[in-house]
Target: AB hydrolase-1 domain-containing protein
Amino acid sequence: MPTISVNEGQTNFYYEDSGPPLDQPGNTYTTLILLHGTYWTSGIFRPLIPYARERNLRLVLLNQRNYPGSSPYNEEDLRIMQSQDEQIQRPMVREHGRIQGQVIAQLIQTLNIPPLRSNSDGSLTGGLSFVAWSAGNIILFQFMSSLDTLDGPNRSLIESRLRSIVLYEPAMYISGTNPYFVSREAENRSSGLWSPIRDKNVVSQVNELFESWISTYFAVVSQLPSFDPADHEATHDLMHERKALDKAPTSTRLEKDIGYDKFWFVASNLRQIKPELLRENVLRSLTRLEASDGGNWSLHPGFKAVLVWCDQSATDCILGASAISQYHSEWQRQGYQMRSLEVVKITDANHFRKPQSPIVNSLGYSHPLFTGTFR
Model:
């Protein structure tokens, strides 16, 4: 069982490696580090491996803490997560981000990931992209917002390799946002804004309901709805009216050999991090942290963030993308030195995949790693 050991040997992370494309020179392929979300492990990405080689990709499937093969959070971490004090939580959140940075740096060394190179035509070769799916984006934002805490050698490794981050369908709460019109629909099962996570009447069924709800196909949303307070009622009406489509939820078609298990308790702990800290992590991740903090380091000039959303996903995923996109625009207007953010919509797809995709039981050909969106 391959693991990365960091934090002076105190913390381990399980990973799987597809290996470099065998017919490619060592510096021409791109490595993708794929981080899963709530409930499912990194095994959810396993069916993508056979399709990576022909696209000059190397896939590294990484398990979060508390998932099989990776170290659990210790009792002190769990106590702090349950605290209602932002000042108590902040040092822990920053430390978790530093540890995630150590993981990426250690993977670079262990797997001998090629450095990022600029070609004469402006294209890039080598390097890595960090892709986080769903609730996994909370870890990605911790990592990006804590780059300044890394020591020089680890920071240099990441500077020389990191070409992009992909925010794949981030959950709404990760942005530190919970608009009032969502909360008022908490127990309305007929509303497109309903979620089993918020409905206190279904606590005993939340695992089963979540699995079906998050993989359901809902009525198409043509563009990200506005989060401007003046548009809240219009956004409420649009999302409230969304109904489930006559397609079986993806979870009913997932084969059991993809290696996923269900770990609901992990998500419930991470959801207790204060919204103010989550929003702060988004800000620090999407601004040029090295410039705003006066650092003497920088990521590659071509570095960018890619925000991916699917037009038939559960409302929480669409609103999560809306919040991050709108925050980025607002912070840019306020004068922050923002990183490039590309927003990509995948049509006729839910949180998992397109129906009848040629890549069965996975994120499918619609996944940006196969469309070249962030290459």
